[in-house]
Amino acid sequence: DDMPSFSDTVFGFLDENYPLSGDYSDSSTEEREWADEKDEEENSASPEERRAFWDQQEKLLQGALFRTSSVESRVRHATKEGMKMLQGSRECSCQRSMGESCRDCLRREIFNHLCNAGFNCSIRKSKWKSSSKIPSGEHIYLEVVEKTSPEKGEIRVVIELNFRAEFEMARASQEYNKLIQWLPEVYVGKPERLRNVIKILCGAAKK
């Protein structure tokens, strides 16, 4: 399968639009060094070492997911309200029910809901050129931009409507499957938090 994974595409559009450092910005220096060392080790760890690794990944993931700001909380609440309104048998513009997998229509409906709720929301399509690791491609996502003080500038919040499912793997380990259960079905958060989450999951998927 030559199609890039979700993590590849997210890194593509984040690198293109939000140049960030490679650090786990929400974790301590000791945690980052520990995670980097474990990522480089071969899969010959003892049961105790494996258990310690997965326990640490769970803590890192929870730390990245549970930190939030007032802006993120408001956008998340409005997004949940929109999703709840769309549940049931309501039909979308493509004549299929909202309960079916229709990402384009769902994205458009949530976009309209957020705009009607007063948010500066847009449907973004980011394209990137091919590199040695990933082919060229594009990624469509929702983004809310809130202007704060001149000193702080703008706050951007990314919305991914099918988040957890993108990380499910057919032959994943039991530990990995347990880890991704912490992921929300819908991700709402700053781009840097999203990048931290993906870094943790990509490292875990290699084990």
UniProtKB/TrEMBL annotation:
InterPro entries: PDDEXK-like (IPR006502). It holds the Pfam family PDDEXK_6. This is Uncharacterized protein. It comes from Opuntia streptacantha (Prickly pear cactus). PANTHER family: OS03G0796600 PROTEIN, PLANT-SPECIFIC DOMAIN TIGR01615 FAMILY PROTEIN. Residues 33-43 have a biased composition (Acidic residues). The lineage of its organism: Eukaryota, Viridiplantae, Streptophyta, Embryophyta, Tracheophyta. Residues 16-50 are annotated as: Disordered.
